[in-house]
Design brief:
Layout: H1 4-7, H2 14-27, E1 33-43, E2 63-70, E3 76-80, H3 89-94, H4 97-103, E4 110-112, E5 123-124, H5 133-159, H6 174-190
Parallel strand pairs: 1-4, 4-5
Antiparallel strand pairs: 1-2, 2-3
Length: 206
């Protein structure tokens, strides 16, 4: 996976963060945002291991719960492929390297996430029960901008149908396949393959 660090890059320097924020506000409106975050389930054959049941998600399907972030240009900026399907999105985020990296910047850079996550200085989520028009307006704007990560999931699974169907290979090989697909997705973006694949209907599995 030596190419992963070349093609999947999360901004961590002040210069890279500023470039990511500038790119975001050129296309969207919420300031200090550098991208969007979510998880998607990749179906697998249930591993024949001691803790195989941990891979069964809320839809009673064996899967990996894969966290990704993307930027305004729909490029994948980080990917975490280590978690069984039963693990909740919020736990993956809390323990992720991306969360630890962003925690150092304290309100200077953040991601957009859905309401399943708790709000934090580095993750903006919608109001669960908006009470005012400004809160409702923020939620509409948040939803419109956060959908970029759903588009990325949709593109990824339509570019690479192996990710949209059950992967029947040994579990040890699956993370490499997912990362390779993410790399190829970013290469396609670099080559300006702009075919509109739509978005993923990413309902909560937990």
């Amino acid at each position: 996976m030596e190419k992963a660090g070349q093609w999947i890059v999360f901004p961590t320097t002040e210069r890279d963060l500023n470039e990511a924020k500038t790119s975001w506000v050129a296309k969207y409106r919420i300031p200090t945002v550098i991208g969007a975050l979510d998880c998607t389930h990749i179906q697998i054959k249930k591993p024949e291991v001691q803790f195989g049941d941990e891979y069964i998600n809320g839809k009673n399907v064996a899967s990996l719960n894969v966290q990704m972030t993307c930027d305004a240009m729909e490029r994948i900026t980080s990917i975490d492929v280590q978690w069984p399907g039963s693990v909740h999105d919020s736990r993956i985020w809390i323990q992720s390297a991306v969360q630890q990296k962003l925690a150092r910047f304290q309100w200077n850079a953040c991601l957009l996430g859905d309401s399943g996550y708790g709000i934090s200085p580095s993750l903006l989520t919608p109001f669960r029960q908006p009470q005012t028009e400004s809160e409702r307006r923020y939620n509409r704007l948040h939803s419109k901008e956060r959908v970029v990560i759903e588009r990325v999931f949709g593109q990824l699974k339509q570019r690479f149908p192996i990710l949209a169907n059950r992967i029947r290979l040994p579990i040890r090989n699956v993370p490499k396949i997912i990362i390779c697909c993410a790399i190829l997705h970013n290469i396609a973006k670099y080559l300006q393959d702009e075919w509109d694949y739509g978005i993923e209907n990413n309902n909560d599995d937990h």
